[in-house]
Amino acid sequence: MFVVGQHLRFSEWLQSEIDKRGWSQSECARASDLNRAVINKLLNGKCKPQPTTLMAIARGFKIPVETAYRAAGLLPPSNHDDDTTRELIHLFQNIQSPQRKATAIMLLKALVVEEENQLRSDGKGKH
Description:
The protein is mostly helical. The chain has seven helices and no strands. Helix 4 packs across helix 5.
């Protein structure tokens, strides 16, 4: 019974990821270099996601493979912050240009400063 439940959770996750991108099953299959029938079976809970399929889906969605493994129940769940951090690291590692990496770091630092300033100004108004 757990396995069936896990298939349903994975299929819901997969459908959600497809919907986020505004893709069809065919577009998901194309991006993942998989047969559309495989995507259809996964969405209908008719087959268990295999590691190679999960890796292909992760590549297609441009997300860390760990995220797909967690959705399939092959890794223990993690909290949202960990998934966000993993995605950030995954994206950063895919940047090849040192100049673009430096730009990404500068943007993140600017966002942190902006948030700190916002928190300070929110705190002043509450006193």
